[in-house]
TrEMBL record, chain A:
<dbReference type="Pfam" id="PF00381">
    <property type="entry name" value="PTS-HPr"/>
</dbReference>
<dbReference type="InterPro" id="IPR035895">
    <property type="entry name" value="HPr-like_sf"/>
</dbReference>
<dbReference type="InterPro" id="IPR002114">
    <property type="entry name" value="PTS_HPr_Ser_P_site"/>
</dbReference>
<protein>
    <submittedName>
        <fullName>Phosphocarrier protein HPr/phosphocarrier protein</fullName>
    </submittedName>
</protein>
<keyword id="KW-0598">Phosphotransferase system</keyword>
<dbReference type="GO" id="GO:0009401">
    <property type="term" value="P:phosphoenolpyruvate-dependent sugar phosphotransferase system"/>
</dbReference>
<keyword id="KW-0963">Cytoplasm</keyword>
<dbReference type="InterPro" id="IPR050399">
    <property type="entry name" value="HPr"/>
</dbReference>
<dbReference type="GO" id="GO:0005737">
    <property type="term" value="C:cytoplasm"/>
</dbReference>
TrEMBL record, chain B:
<dbReference type="InterPro" id="IPR051541">
    <property type="entry name" value="PTS_SugarTrans_NitroReg"/>
</dbReference>
<dbReference type="Pfam" id="PF00359">
    <property type="entry name" value="PTS_EIIA_2"/>
</dbReference>
<keyword id="KW-0598">Phosphotransferase system</keyword>
<dbReference type="GO" id="GO:0016020">
    <property type="term" value="C:membrane"/>
</dbReference>
<dbReference type="InterPro" id="IPR002178">
    <property type="entry name" value="PTS_EIIA_type-2_dom"/>
</dbReference>
<keyword id="KW-0813">Transport</keyword>
<dbReference type="InterPro" id="IPR016152">
    <property type="entry name" value="PTrfase/Anion_transptr"/>
</dbReference>
<keyword id="KW-0597">Phosphoprotein</keyword>
<keyword id="KW-0808">Transferase</keyword>
Length: 90, 150
């Protein structure tokens, strides 16, 4: 199991489109993916679009992505890259 | 965020008979115009279409959440339609859509109002039983009860 922290960078926050991109990317890997809001006990399934949308993360929110499984390293690399790119937004 | 306060009686269309995704969007926009939440129909419709062009708002589970931020919107509002017949929305899970929540936010809205509305809707939709009841809803009163219940 590996964990990695990141920050939401896009202006409009973690709305439908970023949640879609995140779940689409997570679904490409067999590993279990979860997202935790730093400083809270709120954790959701990283492959659930509704789960991610309920977090309603705005710009600057800090999260921890956890990946657990055979392809955990590749999965977390792809998800961190996606988050750090601002989900293709700015 | 109270969803019910954003959802005007005139913006609840149950059932809505429509032949296409575009027709559903136009009817919902008309309902938002009728309720006084939107003053520039074409501007808001343009914002909705621009958003759909970047990726479908069909989130799966037979629900779509088209949304747009536009100077044509007077005040934040929500509209809901339960479609008479399921319609293809290019959803993530490939399933046609039966329930549609439309979010309207003014261009000048402070920061993350759309996000707050989205959170409120998602927190309800994540509940299996809520979704099941939502997609079976037959009148506005039942919808209001449902939105207030959870």
């Amino acid at each position: 199991m590996i964990k990695h922290e990141t920050t939401i960078r896009n202006e409009s926050g973690f709305h439908i489109r970023p949640a879609q991109l995140f779940t689409e990317t997570a679904a490409r890997y067999a590993s279990n993916i979860s997202v935790t809001v730093n400083g809270t006990s709120t954790t959701v399934d990283g492959k659930s679009i509704l789960g991610l949308m309920t977090l309603g993360l705005s710009k600057g929110a800090e999260i921890t992505i956890t990946s657990d499984g055979a392809d955990e390293a590749e999965a977390i690399r792809a998800l961190i890259e996606l988050a750090e790119s601002g989900f293709g937004e700015n | 965020m109270n969803i019910k306060e954003l959802l005007h009686e005139q913006s609840i269309l149950i059932p809505l008979a429509a032949a296409s995704k575009n027709e559903v969007m136009e009817k919902l926009v008309d309902a938002l115009v009728a309720s006084g939440a939107v003053h520039d129909r074409e501007a808001y419709l343009g914002a909705l279409h621009n958003r759909e062009a970047t990726g479908s708002t069909g989130i799966g589970f037979r629900v779509a959440i088209p949304h747009g931020k536009s100077s044509g919107v007077t005040k934040p509002a929500l509209a809901f339609a339960k479609l008479a017949e399921p319609i293809d929305w290019d959803s993530l899970d490939g399933q046609p859509v039966t329930g549609v929540f439309m979010i309207a936010v003014p261009e000048a809205a402070a920061g993350n109002e759309h996000l707050q509305i989205l959170i409120a809707i998602s927190r309800k939709l994540i509940d299996d039983e809520f979704r099941e009841r939502l997609l079976a809803v037959e009148d506005a009163a039942t919808l209001n009860d449902l939105l207030g219940a959870i």
